[in-house]
Amino acid sequence: MNTAIIVAAGKGSRFGGSVPKQFLSLGDKPLILHTLEKFNLCELIGEIILVLAEDKIDHFASLGYESEKGLKLVAGGETRAESVFMGLKAVDSEAEIVVVHDGARPFVSVEEISETVKVAKKMGAACLVAPINETVKEVKEGKIVKTIDRVRLRRALTPQAFRFEILLRAFEGVKLDESITDECMLVERLGIEIFVVEGSQKNIKITTPEDWALAEAFLEEEKCSESGSVTIFTDLKRIKS
Ligand code: CTP
Ligand code: MG
Questions:
Q1: Which-ligand-closest: CA of 207?
Q2: Ligand 1 atom closest to Cα of 84?
Q3: Which of 38, 52, 142, 201 is the most buried (most CB within 10 A)?
Q4: What is the mean pLDDT of residues 93-107?
């Protein structure tokens, strides 16, 4: 059995507003329900743990979302890493692979989840990544120091998946402050090899208000492909170009 920990206990300070971004309505439902639905649809996931701010647990429950996989609601911490750790403590002891995902990434695909789980099952640790399309510079005191060769660079996305015991070991005795921005950082410290899975540029993390327009466009595109009108959409794009 494989478990997903979805962390959604953040305040969304860069996004702003009075309602945390994960509870804003994207199309017909709150953003977090889009994310949950992807994990619900993934056959390789048997248990879902949703980490929420303690004062948002009742609000989430009032949304009436149900999953036949047995959704566990857990109170998170002050930092993302603390929230993951709270989720980790609730994982079923029988779990083989634990997959960690940002609640703020609703456009993860079911295939990305499956592939990451499969690689972790075979190799022990897997991380979804995407290439960097811009030229990257190192900057010091307002001036460019050098250009970094981007060919070997990747952006770390989520999901990131690990054998349960590896992830538990990675969190042992670690100060879970803001500097811990993903799970791979901790697993790297153990000297364990982490295999990459190429992810999609669509798997964005909704971070600032600018991301919202993109999210709405991606949602529209998802709806088009579900309803089978993707051909028309592609044709339109071709006509435009
Ligand atoms: N997260 C969490 N617990 C925290 C902080 C973050 O569960 N204490 C979650 C967020 O809800 C989000 C994911 O981790 O789904 C990635 O974090 P980020 O995009 O940074 O979201 P926020 O921390 O909410 O935003 P900000 O940093 O702008 O405040
Ligand atoms: Mg944050």
A1: 1
A2: 7
A3: 52
A4: 98
pTM score, whole prediction? 0.94
**What is the C-alpha to C-alpha distance for residues 161 and 159, in angstroms, rounded to an integer?**
6
Query: How many angstroms separate the alpha carbon of residue 13 from the centre of ligand 2?
Result: 7
pLDDT tens, position by position, 5-37: 999 999 999 999 999 999 999 999 999 999 999
**C-alpha 181 – ligand 2 centre gap (Å):** 8
- Cis check for the bond before 106: say yes or no (omega within 30 of 0): no
Q: Is 66 helix (H, G, I), strand (E, B) or coil?
A: coil
8 A C-beta contact, residue 233 and residue 221? yes
Q: Model confidence over 33-70: pLDDT tens digits?
A: 999 999 999 999 999 999 999 999 999 999 999 998 98
- d(CA 76, CA 79) in angstroms, rounded, equals 8
Confidence of residue 229 (pLDDT cuts 50, 70, 90): low
Q: Ligand 1: residues within 6 Å at CB?
A: 7-15, 22, 51, 76-80, 83, 102-104, 205, 207
Q: Report d(CA 103, CA 96) in Å as an integer.
A: 22
26, 31, 39, 80, best to mutate for ligand 1 pocket (most atoms within 8 Å of CB): 80
Nearest-atom number in ligand 1 for the CA of 15 is 28
Side chain identity at residue 15, one-letter code: F
Residue nearest (by alpha carbon) to ligand 1 atom 6: 10
φ, ψ of residue 4 in degrees (nearest 5): -105, 135
